[in-house]
From TrEMBL:
This is TetR/AcrR family transcriptional regulator. Residues 8-68 form the HTH tetR-type domain. PANTHER family: HTH-TYPE TRANSCRIPTIONAL REGULATOR BETI, HTH-TYPE TRANSCRIPTIONAL REGULATOR RUTR. The keyword Transcription applies. Signal peptide: none annotated.
Length: 187
């Protein structure tokens, strides 16, 4: 007897809700019952849509990655420009409304560094996604080695600034440092 097929639209809705729950509560103690209770569904519903807890966790990381990846893409109507792209990334990632999401991002990042096999896919994409977008922002004629070096500097600097902002809450100081860095890209 075959089980009922997964409704992919419902799964996507549940996944967004599970990601929101995880952003708010963290993932260290992520278990079926509290998630199901918070979403107003049964644990069987979650198992039906996600399979195992590990599969649900992989889906959470995938959706979190997709949400964060949006932050690296500049509006298509603007010409390629690393400074403009980096400024847009900083504006979106440092927005107060995104704080909880990026706290989860950094928590996963730290855990992934301790368990690289378990988080191999996350680690494979955590830099590559931003790298690709920021290299593309430099235009098709940019020297690829230089573009990668500049994109690496932007990624490391913006993530460091974002981590500082999340840890200290000192928006004025961190925004001032971010502005100084972003202005240096205009040169």
């Amino acid at each position: 007897m075959a089980g009922r097929p997964v409704d992919h639209q419902r799964r996507a809705e549940l996944l967004d809700a599970v990601v929101d729950y995880t952003v708010e509560h963290g993932f260290a103690d992520l278990t079926w019952r509290p998630v199901a209770a918070a979403l107003g569904v049964s644990t069987n519903t979650l198992v039906h849509h996600f399979g195992t807890k590990e599969q649900m966790f992989e889906a959470i990381l995938g959706r979190l990655r997709a949400r964060i990846l949006v932050d690296t893409h500049e509006a298509p109507d603007r010409p390629p420009d690393l400074a403009t792209a980096a400024r847009a990334v900083w504006t979106r990632t440092s927005a107060p409304a995104r704080g909880a999401e990026f706290r989860l991002f950094f928590a996963v990042y730290g855990r992934a560094l301790q368990a690289p096999r378990q988080f191999a896919e996350f680690l494979e994409h955590v830099v590559a996604d931003w790298m690709n977008a920021l290299c593309a922002a430099q235009g098709p004629d940019a020297d690829q080695e230089t573009a990668r070096r500049r994109a690496t500097l932007v990624i490391a600097t913006l993530r460091g600034l974002l981590l500082d902002l999340l840890a200290t809450g000192d928006r004025d100081r961190v925004d001032d440092a971010a502005e100084a860095f972003l202005a240096s890209l205009d040169n």
